[in-house]
Specification:
163 residues; alpha+beta; two-stranded antiparallel sheet; 10 strands
Length: 163
């Protein structure tokens, strides 16, 4: 009977430690940083079409330290289940020059409204971005991309590139 009680005590203690670890991972990945994948052609040549593995940090977004030129991951305003990887081209109050998405369009100027950002892919010819769906609410930004983890030949910090 004593062996059974010791076994149950050991199982309980290990399950508490495991639960605490899972809670720590959840809080860390939602509020500090997480690993995410960027797929598609919209960020060529910065990222590969086949998908780069990126380190995404959340603190810059929480403390409103996102700057123009930063690469961010955001929920798509068209489909909130999809995450998009884009570069910030304008913050609230900025005037953005919008290039046409096709040969028949015209160059226009847009002032980014309060509480919004202008997101655009580096591959302007093959990117669905703010030129299609307009300014994006700041609250949809999930984090700022700070490192590329994979592929190894591209490993390193993702630098801010002024538009």
């Amino acid at each position: 009977m004593a062996a059974w009680r010791a076994l149950m005590q050991e199982a309980w203690e290990r399950s508490v430690v495991f639960t605490q670890f899972l809670c720590f991972l959840h809080v860390f990945s939602n509020h500090v940083c997480q690993v995410h994948q960027c797929l598609g052609p919209s960020m060529l040549p910065t990222f590969n079409v086949a998908g780069d593995i990126l380190l995404l940090e959340h603190l810059s977004v929480k403390f409103e330290k996102v700057r123009s030129g930063d690469v961010v991951m955001a929920r798509s305003p068209v489909n909130p289940r999809v995450m998009v990887c884009k570069r910030v081209l304008g913050l609230e109050g900025d005037r953005v020059v919008v290039l046409p998405t096709n040969s028949k369009g015209h160059i226009r100027h847009v002032v980014v409204p309060k509480g919004h950002v202008w997101l655009q892919g580096d591959n302007i010819y093959n990117s669905t971005d703010s030129r299609h769906y307009g300014p994006v609410p700041y609250a949809l930004i999930q984090g700022k991309v700070c490192y590329r983890i994979w592929p190894l030949e591209g490993w390193g910090p993702v630098l801010n590139r002024e538009p």
